[in-house]
Design a protein that fits this description.
mainly beta; Laminin; 2 domains; two-stranded antiparallel sheet; signal
């Protein structure tokens, strides 16, 4: 078997998996920018919104940062994978960028 992966045939956001007589390109974990294998512990560098904790790239919970990021009145922060979103609190709805009581 020739190790086709030795020539790095895959794209930057993929890793190479050598198989018998061939190879396949697999997508890196969402937390990675470039990787050497499967999972968040094989990242070359962490993607935006992720931080290296030990060997893994883990999501930053922007909603728990000391500085509040959703600053509009009656607005709550919702953490998402690699990011966050600001949503109107329960009982309020978005009307032209302002959270008004429903």
């Amino acid at each position: 078997d020739i190790d086709e992966c030795a020539t790095s045939p895959c794209k930057d956001h993929q890793y190479c998996l050598n198989t018998d007589g061939s190879f396949s390109c697999k997508g890196c974990d969402a937390s990675c920018v470039g990787c050497t294998g499967e999972g968040s512990d094989k990242c070359k560098t962490c993607a935006s919104g992720y931080v290296k904790e030990g060997e893994k790239c883990t999501d930053i919970d922007e909603c728990n940062l000391p500085e509040k990021i959703c600053v509009k009145e009656n607005q709550d922060c919702v953490n998402t994978s690699g990011s966050y979103k600001c949503v109107c609190s329960e009982g309020f709805e978005d009307k032209d960028g302002t959270c008004v009581q429903t």
